[in-house]
TrEMBL record:
Protein source organism: Poecilia mexicana
Catalysed conversion reaction: sulfate(out) + 2 chloride(in) = sulfate(in) + 2 chloride(out); oxalate(out) + 2 chloride(in) = oxalate(in) + 2 chloride(out); iodide(in) + chloride(out) = iodide(out) + chloride(in); bromide(in) + chloride(out) = bromide(out) + chloride(in)
Membrane topology label: Multi-pass membrane protein
Name of the protein in question: Sulfate transporter
CDD domains from the UniProt entry: STAS_SulP_like_sulfate_transporter
Localisation per UniProt entry: Apical cell membrane
Gene Ontology CC terms: apical plasma membrane
Protein keywords: Cell membrane, Glycoprotein, Membrane, Phosphoprotein, Transmembrane, Transmembrane helix, Transport
Domain STAS: start-end pairs: 519-678
A Pfam family: Sulfate_transp
Length: 692
């Protein structure tokens, strides 16, 4: 049997095994794709049920007002926030591998979706300044299926249907959500989870804080009852605050007073919760109390009709029929879905791993990407927008005894009850109350500003990354802020590798340890040997930096030294010739010049490679050139403490000669061994020269 036929047989066997459908294989695939099938049959009812039910109920109670509120950010009617929360919890219950993560609407995702929705709604011709909340008279007409108003409502044709402003808004949100989910699933299929490693913690932190500033700005108009259109394009924060102050005289006093009362109650509740969290077994349902009280006050006080306060409007019960996302919109929002997909899976995977580590179990990042992808793809058919894991709700689940994702099922049931029975009761809820809930929820993110001095003291580079990401996100736009943050963060890493710490080493007393002479006291530099440490990989981008720092540290640049040597030789030769000609003598000038060469302060450079993780072909060529150039001026170059990857690269580039014949005289396992070899070789050479 020939080798080629043997390989063909092995390939056929692997394909057969991979494509064969058997009972155990189907079961294994099913359990991998739906982890609930694996853990639910092993559910410890008596041990887990109380914690799961309690945490599920509490998160559900918190989720309902937030679901309604975050729709203001997303630019869609409140009912769609409830839909999103319901479907996301159900799907993650089936597919997630984390026991504690709470997946649902998230303020940052809602803001990013809202930016896309408002842009597309504006480009479709709808009036952004229009208050879409119907008046009681319009609601009466809507109930009778009549329209007595003279002004026809603007509609846009999409997939053969005429859509109004709200319907078109959720169509845009569903389209961008579908694409974000598809991107996430593709990332899981092609194992692209490594992309998240380029989202550094300071960059993400700064991005989230900048987005929080934008969220606060976008919601500020509701606190004052101002009907200002949401700004399109760059500089949302600056332009929006300018518009707010330009229209400050139009402030609705009813909304302002309501906002002040609600913020006071919400902040007080949060402060009490933070101060007495060890004594309180469950979080205070402050948001629900505020929503219930404000709704009753608005309803019986008739704030909408008497004071023209903007309210949530009619929220229908039940579910709307599923609908395929509008593919005609997708080309316009394809790029917008990329940052949504990346941020959503980055937050979900990082939170999953964080709580898994805390509780001593493991999660599968790739399955988490599939789960969050399907939490976006499937609900997009049911008029939902982009979801992600949320830190605040996850921490609430963890602190209230959550054991498994059964708690997500309980939270979904709470949302279902609201959808089926209680949604219409929120009709009179003022939008300023929802804005208060959103703004108070940003307390944690906005408090990050207080940590800037500590960040600066800990790491200036990280503090600068945080400030750049935060400023770009807040002052330019959320999407560009993310891009600028990533690029700047990566640039800082490149800058660090191009300008790493370099040092000359000295010996610690009489032991075989060498350290930085600038960092430690009482170190002794070895006689006539320079030990140089470069703390970065050596590759094409920092080759010049390596050479400059080496030349500066040892004080000898071989090219310049060689040039000086040749000039001195020529000068000495010319002088000797002139003198010999005058005296009528004949002299061997080459021998004479060789005897008068100036001796350098050191004879060997030892390169401590312990802090060089890898080198590329350019780095290997740099080492080769160094050995050759310094050899021409009478200086040896030795390597010490190289790791295996560096040694492999040097061997492949024949740095040690053919068959590694010079490896024993160029490479040493310790710096001390290299120093001993250098001194021994120098003594031998000196003895030979004395004989000559």
């Amino acid at each position: 049997m020939t080798p080629s036929s043997n390989h063909t047989a092995i390939l056929k066997s692997k394909l057969k095994n991979g494509l064969t459908c058997s009972g155990p294989k189907v079961r294994s695939t099913l359990m991998g794709f739906f982890p609930v099938v694996r853990w639910l049959p092993k559910y410890k009812l008596k041990e887990y049920i109380w914690g799961d039910v309690m945490s599920g109920l509490i998160v559900g109670i918190i989720l309902v007002p937030q679901a309604i509120a975050y729709c203001l950010l997303a630019g869609v009617p409140p009912i769609y926030g409830l839909y999103t929360s319901f479907y996301a919890n159900i799907i993650y219950f089936l597919m997630g591998t984390s026991r504690h993560v709470s997946v649902g609407i998230f303020s940052l995702m809602s803001l990013m979706v809202g930016q896309v929705v408002v842009r597309e709604v504006f480009e479709a011709g709808f009036d952004l300044n229009e208050d879409s909340t119907p008046s009681p008279h319009e609601l009466f007409n809507e109930t009778l299926d009549l329209n007595f108003t003279d002004k026809p409502e603007l509609t846009v044709e999409l997939m053969g249907m005429q859509l109004g402003k709200d319907s078109y808004a959720i169509a845009v949100a569903a389209a961008v959500t579908f694409l974000a989910g598809v991107y996430q699933i593709l990332m899981a299929v092609f194992r692209l989870g490594f992309v998240s490693v380029y989202l550094s913690a300071p960059m993400l932190d700064g991005f989230a804080t900048g987005a929080s500033v934008t969220i606060l700005t976008v919601q500020a108009k509701y606190l004052l009852g101002l009907k200002i259109p949401r700004h399109q394009g760059y500089g949302t924060v600056v332009v929006t605050w300018f518009n707010i102050f330009a229209n400050i005289h139009k402030t609705n006093l009813c909304d302002l007073i309501t906002s002040a009362i609600c913020i006071a109650i919400l902040v007080a509740g949060k402060e009490i919760q933070d101060r007495y969290k060890d004594r309180l077994k469950i979080p205070l349902p402050t948001e629900l109390v505020v929503v219930a009280g404000a709704t009753l006050a608005s309803h019986f006080g008739e704030f909408n009709t008497r004071y023209h306060s903007s309210v949530s409007g009619h929220i229908p019960t039940g579910f709307t029929p599923p609908q395929v996302p509008a593919f005609s919109i997708m080309p316009r929002v394809a790029l917008d879905a990329i940052p949504l997909a990346v941020i959503s899976f980055a937050f979900t995977v990082s939170l999953s791993e964080m709580f898994a580590k805390k509780h001593g179990y493991s999660v599968r990042p790739n399955q988490e990407m599939v789960a969050i992808g399907l939490c976006n793809v499937v609900p997009s058919f049911f008029h939902c927008f982009t979801t992600s894991a949320a830190l605040a709700k996850t921490m609430v689940k963890d602190s209230t005894g959550c054991q498994t994702q059964v708690s997500s099922l309980i939270s979904a049931l709470v949302v279902l009850l609201v959808l089926l029975f209680f949604a219409p009761y929120f009709r009179a809820l003022q939008k300023c109350v929802l804005a208060c809930i959103i703004i108070v929820s940003l307390r944690g993110a906005l408090r990050k500003f207080r940590d800037v001095p500590a960040k600066w003291r800990a790491s200036r580079m990280d503090a600068i990354v945080w400030l750049v990401a935060m400023s770009a996100t807040a002052l330019i736009s959320v999407e560009l802020g993310l891009l600028i943050g990533i690029v700047f963060s990566m640039s800082c890493i490149i800058y660090k590798t191009q300008n790493p710490k370099v040092s000359l080493l000295g010996r610690v007393d009489d032991i075989d340890l060498y350290e930085d002479v600038e960092e430690y006291k009482n170190l002794t530099a070895p006689s006539r040997v320079k030990i140089f440490r470069f703390q970065a990989p050596l590759y094409f981008a920092n080759k010049n930096s390596f050479l400059k720092s080496l030349y500066k540290a040892v004080g000898v640049e071989p090219f310049l030294e060689l040039t000086k040597k040749k000039k001195a030789e020529k000068k000495e030769k010319d002088k000797s010739k002139k003198q010999a000609k005058t005296n009528g003598e004949t002299t061997n000038f080459d021998v004479f010049v060789g005897l008068v060469q100036k001796e350098l302060e050191f004879h060997t450079i030892v390169l401590d490679c312990s802090a060089i993780p890898f080198i590329d072909s350019t780095g290997m060529a740099t080492f080769k050139a160094l050995v050759k150039e310094y050899e021409e001026v009478g200086i040896s170059v030795l390597l010490a403490c190289c790791n295996t990857s560096v040694i492999d690269a040097l061997q492949k580039g024949e740095f040690f000669g053919k068959n590694n014949k010079d490896i024993s005289s160029l490479l040493f396992y310790t710096v001390h061994a290299a120093v001993l070899h250098a001194n021994r070789a120098a003594e031998e050479k000196k003895a030979e020269d004395s004989v000559v």
